[in-house]
Design a protein that fits this description.
5 helices; 8 strands; 219 residues; 28% strand; 8-stranded mixed β-sheet
Length: 219
Amino acid sequence: MLELFPSPDEPNQPSIVSGREAADAASLEMFGFDYELICEVLDAAHSRSGRATKASAKAQRGSDFFFAMVEHLRLKLIPKGFTSVNDTNIEMVRSPKNTFQIATGQGDKATGNVNKPAGTKNPKGPATTHLVENNQGGFDSITPHPSWDAIKTWWLLYRVTPSDDDMRFIYSEISLPVSHAGKSFVWSKRIILPPYQLGKIQDPPQEPPSVDVPVARRG
């Protein structure tokens, strides 16, 4: 952990790992999974949300995406020894040794942006505050220290680009908050993952080649 996260350039700023370095196996091995697993979870969530129709409730697509994120992250990690946790209605998955847990949430427009502090799309209440306060001690390591017993709670934030984009991406990060008020968070560490591409611009269809068919005259 200490070697992975560089010292911040300025005081009171988070340590950030981003880009291909964040996708490298070493950056996520402390959690017991890799970037490919996160991509599979994002893809499953996007597929689930795509079932919404024009007749669906306005919030259904976003709700389906969130619920699928929670479900598929658990489906991937439970075989690795993780357990499902619901702490005051916050859905999480907890590590085999009970040293950390991961909550999932839809992020704001700064999610995945190394230059701006990410937050959640919707404000969070006292239950989130309690979890974040537990992160304020001993956050230099996810290995328990004798002076504190709190389980560290990391957030897997995601942000999907608008559906009218030619190329759609999901921006995501796994980050450790130490302070929180409403939708705003102060982070100790941020692992900003590479954007996951959902689609790509399709080449325009090619005109079929013209074919001259000789026609023989009668008579």
